Amino acid sequence: MSKTKVLNLKDKISGNEADLSLSNLSEVPVRELALFPKATVVDLSCNNIISLPPEFCSLTHLVKLDLSKNQLTCLPDDLGNLVNLQHLDLYNNKLTILPVSFSQLRGLKWLDLKDNPLEPSLAKAAGDCLDERQCKQCASKVLQHMRAIQEESDRAREKRLLKEKELERKREAKQKEREAREREARKREKAEEKERRRKEYNAQMAALAVQEQQKKKSEEKKKKNGQAADKKVDVKAAPKPRRSLIGLIFKLLLLLTVGLAGVAAACQLTDLQKEDFCTPINAAVDDCLSWAKVQEGVVRQLVHNLSSAAKDLLESTQTSKN
C-alpha cells in the first residue's frame, strides 16, 4: 500500500463517512479502510466488486455499508463478525444466498436486497423493500429467516456430529472387537503351540523310556546269557583242574605207598626179613603204621584243605575273567 493511495483514501473521507462510490473498484481496499476506524459509514456503490475478501469481516467498526450496484455473487462466511452493522444496502447485485453467519448481525435494522436473483425462500423473507418501512421489515424478516437457517444448520451439524460420533463409536467398537478376536486367536495359537510341544515332549520321553527299557532288557538278557554260559563253563571246566590236582596227589601217594609197601612186604614176607637192612625197615614200617594210624585224620584234613583251595582258586580265576 503506497502513501499516495492512503492520501487519496483520506481525501475521500469526510467525518465518519468514506465515499468510494463510482471509483471503478474491482476490490475493496480493506487495509486502507482499517487505518481509519472512525469512518463508520462506507459507500462502495457503483463499482465492479465481484467479491469481498475474508479480511473485510475484520472491519467491525462499520455501522453503515453501501454495496449496491456491484457484481457481488457471494458474501464472506464470517460476515456476522460485523456486529456493529445497522444499515446494509445490497441492491442490484448477483446474490442468490446469504452466509449463515448473517443471523449474527443482531444490530441490523435496515436491509435492501432488491434486484438480486435470490432463492425463493430468501426472496420471500426479503420482500419488496420499496420504502424505509419495508427495508426495515426486510432486515427483521431476513434475520429471522437466517436464524431459522442457522438453527437448522446447527441441528444438522449437531446431527452430523452425533452421527460422526456414533460412527466413530462403532468403529472403535469394531476395532476393539477385532483386537479382542486377534488377542483370542493369538492366545489360542499359543495354547495350541504349547499343547503341540507338550505332546512332542511326551512322545520323546515315551520313546526314550521304551529305548531305555529295551536296552535294560537287552542288558539283562545278555547278563543272564553270560551267567548261564559262565555256569556251563564252571560246570565243565572246574572239575578238570580239580581232578588233575587231586589225581596227582593221589598218584604220588599211591606210588609212595606202593613203593613202601613193596619194600615192607619184601622185608616182612620174604626171607629178607632176617637181613640186617630189613631190620630198620621193619621197624620203620611198624612206626609208620603206628604214625599213619595217628596221622590218618591229619591226612584227611590236608586233602580236604587242598581240595577247597583248588576250588577257591578256580572261582577267583573265573571271576576275574568276567
UniProtKB/TrEMBL annotation:
Stored SMART domains: LRR_TYP
InterPro entries the UniProt entry points to: Leu-rich_rpt, Leu-rich_rpt_typical-subtyp, LRR_dom_sf, LRR_domain-containing
Parts of the chain that traverse the membrane: 245-266
Record keywords, A-Z: Leucine-rich repeat, Membrane, Repeat, Transmembrane, Transmembrane helix
Protein name: Leucine-rich repeat-containing protein 59
Keyword hit for Signal: no
Disordered, as annotated region: 169-237
A Pfam family of this chain: LRR_8
Superkingdom of this protein's organism: Eukaryota
Biased composition (Basic and acidic residues): 169-201, 213-222
